[in-house]
From TrEMBL:
Record's protein name: Cystathionine gamma-synthase
Protein source organism: Microbispora catharanthi
Family annotation (PANTHER family): CYSTATHIONINE GAMMA-LYASE, TRANS-SULFURATION ENZYME FAMILY MEMBER
Cofactor: pyridoxal 5'-phosphate
Keyword terms: Pyridoxal phosphate, Transferase
InterPro entries, per database record: Cys/Met-Metab_PyrdxlP-dep_enz, PyrdxlP-dep_Trfase, PyrdxlP-dep_Trfase_major, PyrdxlP-dep_Trfase_small
SUPFAM superfamilies on file: PLP-dependent transferases (SSF53383)
């Protein structure tokens, strides 16, 4: 039976505990497991780096909500990215990356993997010919983030999957901003999905984590091998918190989207705002693609202001209910200046962000309170 998103989020991998009937998977705070004779593993568990029942529950739930066959949970989003890249690439290989992406992802490519001999080219992913031209025989992956952090650009996942596959590369989609509730890249042809589960999946700003989900069992197996061999796994308590967050992802995302739409309306009518970046706007260059591949347009909103960097920073400092902070995707609203905060590591690179940009992670508080706070901050 094909079950709905919320049913999977609440039940997949989460059968009642066979020993006690506990309806929530317990936190298995354990490193090692008694064996029934040498090599006789009970239920497949031997050591918690290789597998842990709380992590297994999360991994099965993640695979189910992304419509994939294998899910793997990591200590952070970047740990998941690193594991994926060092599974599919070796020194001498090449990756096509977006010219707009999370600064930490860019730093992983430019400051870490490049040193190990994996090269990359940033390309505007909206230009399919440019992507095609950038794919070469050594290209092992095309990396997609959609919508992007922080400019909310949209890339056509199905079209890019064709380009990547024609070139013999895998298509990887960072689905952090959309979450699996709004967008399912594997169903559009992606080979692997990456998440910072720190964000919408966890949803409560109380845990750092990452995930990989694959469309094929083969890639899933290779990644699982590297997850164990490299060791950046999610611990049992972190897995439990993330799983608790995942259960309410659908209802939270709907409220994030409702509130973001109201915030966008306010920004559009404000004289100090020169541009609103939100894929739900018909004038957004990626609107049509977003409407095709996303259920709704998400809770992230960026905008540019009159008065340049100083004005943008001042707005961030004046906001009260919108808390000044990095990260995103939690129930509470956050505001930040990407140029000086989340994307400082992209300064001077092709991924540098405009200085007059403000990014909002619109939370699920009472929307009138959010609008009042933002009006006050904008002045
Ligand atoms: C789109 C995106 N991908 C990946 C990451 C990295 O995840 P983490 O901070 O959990 O390592 C982030 C973090 O902000 C992000 O925004």
């Amino acid at each position: 039976m094909n079950q709905g998103f919320e049913t999977l989020a609440i039940h997949a991998g989460q059968e009642a505990d066979p020993h006690t009937g506990a309806v929530v998977p317990p936190i298995y705070a354990v490193s090692t497991y008694k064996q029934d004779g040498v090599g006789g593993l009970r239920a497949g568990y031997e050591y918690s780096r290789s597998a842990n029942p709380t992590r297994t529950a999360l991994e099965e739930a993640l695979a189910a909500v992304e419509g994939g066959v294998r899910g793997l949970a990591f200590a952070s989003g970047l740990a998941a990215e690193d594991t994926l890249l060092r599974t599919v690439c070796k020194p001498g290989d090449h990756v096509v990356i977006p010219d707009d992406a999370y600064g930490g992802t860019y730093r992983l490519f430019s400051r870490v993997l490049q040193e190990w001999g994996v090269s990359f080219d940033p390309v505007p992913l909206g230009d399919l010919d440019a992507v095609r031209a950038a794919v070469r025989p050594e290209t092992k992956a095309v990396w997609v983030e959609t919508p992007t952090n922080p400019l909310l650009n949209v890339a056509d996942i199905a079209a890019l999957a064709d380009v990547a596959h024609d070139g013999g590369a895998v298509l990887v989609v960072d689905n952090t901003f959309a979450s699996p509730y709004l967008q399912q890249p594997l169903s559009l042809g992606a080979d692997a999905v990456v998440h910072s589960t720190t964000k919408y999946v966890g949803g409560h700003s109380d845990v750092v984590g990452g995930a990989l989900v694959t469309r094929s069992a083969d890639l899933g197996e290779r990644l699982a091998y590297h997850q164990n061999a490299m060791g950046a796994v999610a611990g049992p308590f972190d897995s439990w918190l993330t799983l608790r967050g995942l259960k309410t992802l659908g209802v939270r995302m709907d409220r994030h989207c409702d509130n973001a739409e109201r915030v966008v309306d306010l920004l559009l009518s404000h004289p100090k705002v020169v541009q609103v970046l939100y894929p739900g706007l018909p004038e957004h260059p990626g609107h049509e693609v977003a409407a095709k591949q996303m259920r709704r347009f998400g809770g992230m909103v960026s905008f540019r202001v009159e008065g340049g960097e100083e004005a943008a920073v001042e707005i961030c400092n004046r906001a009260k209910l919108f808390t000044l902070g990095e990260s995103l995707g939690g129930v509470e609203s956050l505001i930040e200046h990407p140029g000086r905060m989340t994307h400082a590591s992209a300064a001077g690179s092709p991924l540098e962000v405009p200085a007059d940009l403000v990014r909002l992670s619109v939370g699920i508080e009472t929307v009138d309170d959010l609008l009042a706070d933002l009006s006050e901050a904008l002045g």
